[in-house]
Amino acid sequence: MSKLNRLLEDKIIDYHDSCNLRRSKFIGSGGSASVYVANWKNTSTKYAIKRCVDDKEVYLTYLANSHENIIQFRGITNFEDDEKYSLVLEYAEGGTLGKYLRDDTLTLKWENQLKFAKEITSAILWLHVDKGIVHGDLHPNNILIHKDTIKLADFGRSCQKESGCYNSEPVPNTNVKFMRLYQECWKQEPDERPHISKVNEVLNIIDSENSGNNDVSTVPYRRGSEESTKKTEFVHSCQIDLNILCQKY
Predict the structure, then answer these.
(1) Is 161 known to sit in a ligand binding site?
(2) The last residue of a domain, from among 90, 120, 154
């Protein structure tokens, strides 16, 4: 008997009858899976439904379920004519980090970058140390935002431990220590980049040093030739700052 079937038989993983779920909006797709918003029958409660996933993804999503910065797993279901199970997940109303960075670029403060970076590293560190899971596919569109909180999602390419590098100008008004940290994470060779626990430690130090202190050392804003060019470069740089946390982990 497979691990998943054993968990279902022991009622450790909840199975939901698909007739209780009313699918509405299509969110996106990846690989062979599609993601929809669904409401629980006769309620306003929303879930995200990821259809047609492998048993391994179900199992790893279940294992990764108990961290506040990882999307919450509510169980599985099976729709008519589907050979594979579908995941029933917490619905992240804020969309993806990628969309957030595009839409809120000009108002994004470095303090929010720090908050998001700390939440991402906290989740990655917990996956590595507590669960022995390597996510394997971290990028801004697999990182969601719910109530201004980061939620890692999509364990389709994840694995348990046993079984391109970016570069950019720093974001204007970014803390200098934060800039140095992500430059370390830019290194071409993954083995030369700092361990995720070190990233987490440095972010905590930066946070404690700047708590209640507005007089911080930051990278100055540089004038560009065109407003549209500045915005494009700023968006790219914001994405790089958080992308670099995803390249090794």
Answers:
(1) no
(2) 90
